[in-house]
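From the methods appendix. Each design record in this collection lists the tokenized structure first, followed by the designed amino acid sequence. Records were kept in a plain field format so they could be parsed without special tools. The example shown here is representative of the layout used throughout.

RECORD:
FOLD TOKENS (355 positions):
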């Protein structure tokens, strides 16, 4: 294939081949090439408000811990003890004074410095001062906390820049976390992302949602690291309020669904080659109008989500059937899918894989 014609333009684009949606080897490649090389949403600031508050997560194959230090600074570390690879924490927690390894009790400060190691007096040239947990990059944005494992991941602002400005006067930083809904779905993580990235399926999959979005005015814009689908809202005063719906997808696995007075983050986590978890976290403005819509919003969201789950599970069966060859994309409606697939193609190529 000629380098200058690859990847093809939108008018000649095809979807990603089915082989990328199946098999452990492909997912292992993506853990390295995609998840370990991108900003990953791991928490919201309410979980990390005070010194010693910590969150544990898995980024690709790497266990990580994010902890607020005694000095108030948020730090991230690889959650792997320097003794024999035990975990510093197994679950999220509040107000820890130090990080005690769960295996043999080596103790690190909240700043990642080894402070004590029981019964190690007989070890020659062993000094706790020489041992630190490997740090990782952390960034706080609009009440959300992100980490990046690799120094090659672009600066956070380069990835997320422009979103807060675009949605004004909606103010994400003024919204408060309310709750999480999690859905485990029998499809590859990319099937869920692909489905999010186009409104093409709206009239066929979402009869209710089609009534509150304006399909003719539904628009997709592409940016370096994210895409934005937007639509005016109609007939939705009780559910979403009046204004505009913004659906951001930020590479590789974060969605920000923003309505007047409400943000819902979605994080798509692979559980296996043909299974993923979708975490919905709800954040609301504190004004009475936004608060009054919470119940209707969540009920409606659950209905739409069930419709998406059903179609995604069916698509995964199609992809694994052995009968599917990558099909043509609709230039008018699927530019977001094309954009995501090209980001993946670039990430795979950087890892020595070609899509
Ligand atoms: S592995 Fe951490 S103390 Fe042994
Ligand atoms: Fe959908």
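DESIGN:
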């Amino acid at each position: 294939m000629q380098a200058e014609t690859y990847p093809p333009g939108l008018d000649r684009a095809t979807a990603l081949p089915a082989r990328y949606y199946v098999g452990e080897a492909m997912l292992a490649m993506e853990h390295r090439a995609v998840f370990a090389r991108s900003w990953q949403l791991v928490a919201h600031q309410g979980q990390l408000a005070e010194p010693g508050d910590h969150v544990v997560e898995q980024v690709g194959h790497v266990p990580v811990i994010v902890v607020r230090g005694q000095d108030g600074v948020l730090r991230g570390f690889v959650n792997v003890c320097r003794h024999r690879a035990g975990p510093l924490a197994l679950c999220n927690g509040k107000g820890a004074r130090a990080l005690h390894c769960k295996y043999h009790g080596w103790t690190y400060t909240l700043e990642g410095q080894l402070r004590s190691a029981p019964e190690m007096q007989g070890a020659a040239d062993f000094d706790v001062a020489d041992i630190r947990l490997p740090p990782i990059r952390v960034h706080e944005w609009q009440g959300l906390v992100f980490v990046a494992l690799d120094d090659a991941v672009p600066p956070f602002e380069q990835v997320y820049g422009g979103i807060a400005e675009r949605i004004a006067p909606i103010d994400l930083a003024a919204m408060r976390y309310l709750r999480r809904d999690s859905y485990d779905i029998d499809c590859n993580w990319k099937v869920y992302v692909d489905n999010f990235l186009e409104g093409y399926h709206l009239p066929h999959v979402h009869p209710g949602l089609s009534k509150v979005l304006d399909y003719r005015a539904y628009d997709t814009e592409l940016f370096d690291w994210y895409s934005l689908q937007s639509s005016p809202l109609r007939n939705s005063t009780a559910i979403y309020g009046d204004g505009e719906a913004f659906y951001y997808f930020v590479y590789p696995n974060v969605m920000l669904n923003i309505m007047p007075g409400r943000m819902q983050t979605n994080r798509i986590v692979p559980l296996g080659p043909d299974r993923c978890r979708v975490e919905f976290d709800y954040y609301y403005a504190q004004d009475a109008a936004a608060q009054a819509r919470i119940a209707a919003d969540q009920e409606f969201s659950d209905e739409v989500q069930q419709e998406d789950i059903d179609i995604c599970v069916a698509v995964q069966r199609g992809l694994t059937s052995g009968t599917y060859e990558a099909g043509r994309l609709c230039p008018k409606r699927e530019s977001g899918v094309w954009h995501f697939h090209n980001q993946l193609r670039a990430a795979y190529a950087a890892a020595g894989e070609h899509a």
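APPENDIX NOTE: The mean pLDDT is 96.
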